[in-house]
Amino acid sequence: MSLLEIKDLKVSFATEEGLVQAVDGVSLSLEPGEVVAVVGESGSGKSVTALTVMGLTRAPNVDFEGHITYNGEDLLHASNQQLRQVRGAEIAMIFQDPMTSLNPVMRVGDQIAEQILAHENLPKEEVAERAIHMLERVGIPRARDRARNFPHEFSGGMRQRVMIAMALSCDPSVLIADEPSTALDVTIQAQILQRLRDLREAANAGIILVTHDLGVVADIADRVLVMYAGRIVEQGSLDEVFYDPQHPYTWGLLGSITRLDVPRPPRLPAIGGAPPSLAARPAGCHFRPRCPHEFDKCTDDPALEARVPDAPGHCDRCWLSPEDKRSKRQVSEEQIGLEAKGVIA
């Protein structure tokens, strides 16, 4: 049995524009000690999926379908009291925006201590020392003094580190990291990624990494899920998705990264157009209006299936055959290479 399992999750919001299908049939499993990265553009449903696992999207205008289980326990339909027992202690989350996720009128040390006291019966003096130790672990200098500061006395990157310290304070079995490297320089980013590895190795914790930074994904992830317009459009191991991507949307994401092994192009390739409104998604393949390889069959809705021989775990939503995909991807890469060399404009 998986540590955390999401099956056919659907999350919709009733708005003035109509029904917004933010998450549409997402399935995900997380094993102990595994890092699963969820990538995609803003608005693809990554954060809504993560927040729903934590029970933080519950509202009168929200409708849920599907299943979320943690160690066999149903989370999607659990009571708020049951979720409070799990949230923070068993499943913790590093939120995307540290500017608004901390209480502005509480000292940061007290905020970390509050979470520990909510789940563990320890003397307050011991909890205070543990909060200081957590700040030291994430690289905050003079942690004992800084623990008495308020959030507004920290920079954005330092606030992000406080959020990470809070999330790790109870050694959770599942950590959901929503853009954990936002506002951090590369040195601190490397330290934070090492902290995530330490948690995985020490507690055999499973980690869901929600990010747009494919460099971070390449450094730490075991499996990758690519989301677009509320759906998973490709999933597989890190090597499968990075070295043999099957969906044109994934090609676009990977192509937008600066590479050091080829000449620098005059400009980075970009995916044309914009993501669709989740209140009025296009029929068939949702990526169809932006895809340069669209053909007649794309008006039908493709299922998430394994289409590559000998790779049963590598699935995608694209009607092109694996041979056509490799051919078109190779032509695209060659064109980028010629542009970088100035052969074509």
Task: Explain the overall architecture.
The chain contains twelve helices and twelve strands. The protein is α/β, with parallel strands linked by helices. It has an eight-stranded mixed beta sheet, sandwiched between helices. A four-stranded antiparallel beta sheet has the order 2-1-4-5, with helices on one face. A hairpin with a 2-residue loop joins β4 (62-70) and β5 (73-74). It is globular, with a radius of gyration of 21 Å. Residues 338-345 have low confidence and may be disordered.
How would you summarize the topology of this molecule?
Elements: E1 4-15, E2 18-30, E3 35-39, H1 46-53, E4 62-70, E5 73-74, H2 80-86, E6 91-94, H3 98-101, H4 108-119, H5 124-137, H6 143-146, H7 156-168, E7 174-178, H8 186-203, E8 206-211, H9 214-220, E9 223-228, E10 231-237, H10 238-243, H11 248-255, E11 305-306, E12 315-316, H12 322-340
Parallel strand pairs: 3-8, 3-9, 6-7, 7-8
Antiparallel strand pairs: 1-2, 1-4, 4-5, 9-10, 10-12, 11-12
Identify the overall geometry.
Answer: globular
What's the rounded overall pLDDT mean? Answer: 89
Rounded Rg:
21 Å
Number of helices: 12
User: Major β-sheet, in short?
Assistant: 8 strands, mixed
Stretches where pLDDT is under 50 for at least 5 consecutive residues are 338-345
Sketch the topology as an H/E string, one letter per element. EEEHEEHEHHHHHEHEHEEHHEEH
Number of DSSP strands? 12
Fraction in helix: 25-40%
Strand content: 15-25%
